[in-house]
Known about the structure:
Elements: H1 15-28, H2 30-47, E1 51-55, H3 62-73, E2 77-79, H4 80-89, H5 93-100, H6 102-115, E3 122-124, H7 133-140, E4 143-149, H8 152-162, H9 176-190, E5 193-196, H10 203-218, E6 225-227, H11 237-241, H12 246-252, E7 261-263, H13 272-276, H14 283-294, H15 302-315, E8 325-329, E9 332-336, H16 346-350, H17 353-360, E10 366-372, H18 376-386, H19 390-393, E11 396-403, H20 409-417, E12 423-428, H21 432-443, H22 446-456, E13 458-462, H23 468-487, E14 497-502, H24 507-517, E15 522-529, H25 534-541, E16 543-545, H26 567-574, H27 579-592, E17 594-596, H28 599-608, E18 609-613, H29 616-630, H30 636-648, E19 655-659, H31 667-673, H32 683-691, H33 701-710, E20 716-718, H34 722-737
Parallel strand pairs: 1-3, 1-4, 2-3, 4-5, 9-19, 10-11, 10-13, 11-12, 12-20, 14-15, 14-19, 15-18
Antiparallel strand pairs: 6-7, 8-9, 16-17
Amino acid sequence: MFQVFQYQPLRLITQNSLSSMCLKLMLSRPVAFAQIWKSWFSSHSLLGKKNIILMGPPGAGKTTTGRIVGQKLDCPVIDIDDDVLETAWNMSVSEKLQDVGYEEFLEEEGKALLKFSASGSVISLSGSNPMHAAGMQHIKKNGIVVYLDVPTTVIMSRLKSKQMDRIVGLSPGISLKDVLQFRKQFYKRWFDIRVLCGGDVAAEVVAEKVLDAVKRYQDSELETFISTRSSRSGKSKEEDSNKLYFSDVVIQGLALDGGLFVPERGLPKFTAEEWRGLIEATYVERAQVILERCIHPADIPASKLAEIIETTYGENFNCSKVAPVRHLAGNQFLLELFHGPTASFKDFALQLMPHLFAYCIPRSCNYLILVATSGDTGSAVLDGFSRLHNTDKQRIALVNFFPEDGVSPIQKSQMIGCQKENAWSVGVKSDFDFCQTAIKQIFTNSDFTGFLTVEYGTALAAANSINWARLLPQIVYHASAYLDLIHQGIISFGSPVDICIPTGNFGNMLAAFYAKMMGIPIRKCICASNENNVLTEFIRTGVYDLRGRKLISSFSPAVDILKSSNLERYLHLIANEDGQLVTQLFNQLENQGHFQLQKDLLGKLQQDLVAGWCSNEDCLAAIHSVYSTTGYILDTHTAVAKVVADRLQDRTCPIIISSTAHYSKFAPAILRALRIAEINQNPLSQLHLLSSYSALPPIHWGLLETLKRTGNGDHRVCAADMSVLMSHIETLIQNHFM
């Protein structure tokens, strides 16, 4: 239960009396003195002359928590209501509110805050202080603002039990819930750190969380990144001193040794109570909380991150729930990930990542983003980077390489239609694996990258799922899906679920596994492949074998992949971050076309993952069957996952199937699955025909508009040759930046 502590006046110790006490203790009990001195020094070095400023709604426990934090730090504790406002006004806060009214009260409260100053203290704000901009700017200059984020339902229950009805802003016709919701915008504007506080968390626990959060805020050294191919034990002093942080890995994309970046200390863990506190939250709120824990405020301040997330998911998606969970049949649920502007799950990362990238890069250099796509990434990354502010577009450009004959007609039309003044598409006469491998080789070609920097002042960066900023936002929707099932009354927190994902490059699957590591009770991650089933065979046997394998064109082109880049991150994790082993495995794959896991690693892998694959025929049959029984049309990738889920689930818990794209993107295959005899080859005509079915979900809102814009749009096409690709890159840099 939430605890209320009796107020104890602060005991002030003079410097002389403190010195006398220390001397006596040092002489009589030297070990005890050393321990106390170490604790005191740690606490005071944490605070220094800065204030810890506790902010949150009325009933959040700011006063109680502040007193406990002050006791732990042995520093002054100041409650704005009791020690500042009531002293200045010579009346209670509730009397002042009744006397002057809502608007005048806020102004008087702000004036009092502007006259107030303190240092090295713990300060508990009133619930309405953050609504006065000048007052908050003044007090924040010398403090770290900690937002005690308590679920609205908990706050309402607490205020009701205390019979507090004199709340600033509360009036006839305006409910307490409306007041609390209105205030959130001000709390989000001012805080530096968020501390999640559930309903049954004791004030002592909240105080410890506040101290931990302040320590994290002040020490970004703890949140560094390493390559999947680096050796911890073999690190040189030079490597150890060249630490990489979130902003560094967003810019660099791929490690210099060819590996992928991962957090050195792993991902943050959420308690069950913290997850429960997000059940009532919106998708935007969940994203803010999760990503704040994964991105240090020294890289991107919480207020800026909140602004980016709000823009991304609050404006660019056509569904208010952003990533809704829909019941399909039995114990199967669909996680709809196609409500973004380009109709695929790639929008979740690629609407967000460009803004993260633009914030992190230095202003003194131009950047060209290189992307390889098997389909959906192309239009998503083009659209995302084209939405940057004009000033950012002048210094950030993008080129998207895709297999010219390896994507659907609508996907190609999208990639052509999404080209803008800073974003271009180049078709390559090869498959996705060549495109992806070529980009990796370009990044590790120091002669070429150095030439571009010296000659044109331009650096290269990556936006594929090899970039950590691409992977991170995907964790959010897997966690959100689980919370939505709780909100819908399907499960309670702690009940397991299975996840089934159409899998090619392993990024989406890895994000689900990361959500599991952060505390979401996912039981099994089911990988669903099409006829390019290298991953399925690997998960079943431990042998990753590309010898004699040729890419097969399928109805689900986004998973027509033989080399799964993000698998490297997963293997690094289960191999206890053994960079030498990961290097050995992937060097062998590159040079010999295969590798085999040790028996113990295969055992670990099979505890987490199961896998199956689906033929083209079974994919189309599943689309027809689901439409016939439910009126819902699956896209071809979701159909692959549906087939594999039917085969592998044991029906003892719900299974969430990731619906990774809208069926409109694969109209010819869908029309064939629905057994339409004559199919017009014009993509726009195909979509109009599909819309006549009045199926669920309806035709995608943005797709028709993009295809209308495409018309006879043009794009570059080049041979599958490294020198040709590098020549294209240089030409694009000359045209855009020079």
